[in-house]
Structures are given as structure tokens and as C-alpha cells.
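S.,

Sequence below, as promised.
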Amino acid sequence: MHPPPAHPTYGVVTPVRDEEEHFARLARSLIAQTHPPQQWVVVDDGSRDRTREIAESFAAEHEWITVIGSGSSHERARGGPIVRAFETGRAQLRAQPEFVVKLDGDLYLPPHYFAWVAETFARDPRAGIVGGVAYVHDGARWVQDGAADNVNGVAKAYRSACLEDIGGLPASMGWDGIDEYAARARGWNIHVLGELMILHYKRRGSKQAWYAARWEEGRGNHYMGYLWSWLLVRAAYRMLVERPPVLGGLALFAGFVVARVTRRPQVPDAAAREELRREQRARLRALARGGRVARGSPLPGGGPAFWSDGSVP
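The prediction came back faster than expected:
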């Protein structure tokens, strides 16, 4: 039997803002990784609580942790500000790692998390984006957060060559979908590791009013290049499953329509737009047949839960 490949090196960038309640939990889980990062850059994006103080206390104990400010001032927002903070942190990585991770500040990761992610990159030379599956607590139990066939934006690991190939992350709403379509359009594989669990202690957009979050999401869907037909399906689904009922989906739809009517710009990557629309057409056909479209590339040997590298907890 061939020995497992060596784990690739990686760096982590965490944009944070007002994560006093959760940041220490994330820090302890990152320190406990069986395959630790070369460097962790924490980018404080205007916190008004003790987040930066807590981060700096960890940096004082671990030389591979760096804390910086984003150098920007803005209202709490998703999309562009987060990407700009990530890029600010990425520029501070002292060495070019084999993969780089965009990591939120309100997570818990099991100790073997990055060992499994790293080995996935090692075993598939065309693995471009890899991550586990995020779960949020709904007040009664932990439930899956987001789609099962996308790497959740709270913890995305990018092969450095892939990130350069797609031109970095777009500073806009929808960045964590555009990146995957851009990568797939260029022949990179996306791997969602269903056996690798992330605990997410806040729902995405929870610091925004629901209507603002859904409105921004609709505008982001326009920027990504969504088909009208798929947006209607998406909005109808959100009307049924999200709170408040109906209104959230309507706000999403309104944001999309206004962006479309006013001809707001769309992502300039034509290959990413076409990959997105190709998949949406396939999904619409599958829905009409009562099925679904499988995404992602299968991993040899069943994935990291079955690989004999000694990292199974």
C-alpha cells in the first residue's frame, strides 16, 4: 500500500468584526489542529468590542498568529468588505502556502479538520476549492447551513494556483459562488467533504436586518448572472422555508429585479457566468423530471474518512 502523500502547507486569513463571544473558541480549535497552519492572519475589520484584544492575546503566545487592522471604515456588510479584508490579510502571509483558507471568526473545527482538507489537496492535483459542511444551531438542534454541494463561505480552502487562476475573489455579494463557477470553468475540482463537520455559531447575515440581507442577496444573484427562471424558483423556495414566510423571498426577488432593470454590472468573468447558467439549466431540467443534478468530483477511496493516514479521530 502506498503511504499517504505529505500534507501541503497552508495559511489562514480570518476577517473579524465584533466576534468577542466566539473568537477564543475558534482560536483554541485552530491551535489544536493536528496539521497546523504556517501562519494565521486575523484581520480586525472595525470591531467595537474586545475581539482584537482577545486575538492579540493569542498572538502574544503563538508566533504564527498575526493580528492586523483592515484599514477601512464601513457599516456592517457582507460581500465586498469581507473580501477586501481577506485580501488585506492574504497580502500579509510571509510565505506562499500551497493553499490558503478564508475562515470566519465564529466557528469550531475538529482537530483533524485541516489534516483532512490538506490530504484532499494532496491526493487530487486538480482540487481547487475544498471544505467541510457547516452546521448552525436553530435553538433545538444542529442543522446544515447552506447547500450540500457548495463549499460553505465560512470556511473555504483554495489551492493557491487556483486562486491565482481565477483572479482572486470578487469583492461583491455572491463571491462565494462566483469563485466555484470560475474554478470549475477552468478545470478545477470542488470537493465538499461531507464527513467533515464545522460548527457555525451564527447564521450568515445574522447581524443584518432580514430584509437588508435578502435584498443584498438578490442583488448578488444578479451580479453572478442568474437566469430569470432559476431566480424565480430560488425566491419561491425561500418564501416557503425562511422566516419571515414569503417576505424574505420577495425581498430577494425585488433586489434581483431592481438590479436587473437598472442594469447594474455583472461579474466580468464570462466563463464563470456561463458555467453558472449551464448548471442552472441542468437543474431546471432535473426539477422538471423530479430529480436533481449531482455536483462535485468523487474522491478516490471514498474520501478522507476512509484514507489510512492515521488522522481518523
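The beta strands are 10-16, 39-44, 65-69, 99-103, 107-108, 127-137, 142-144, 155-159, 189-200.

Coffee later?
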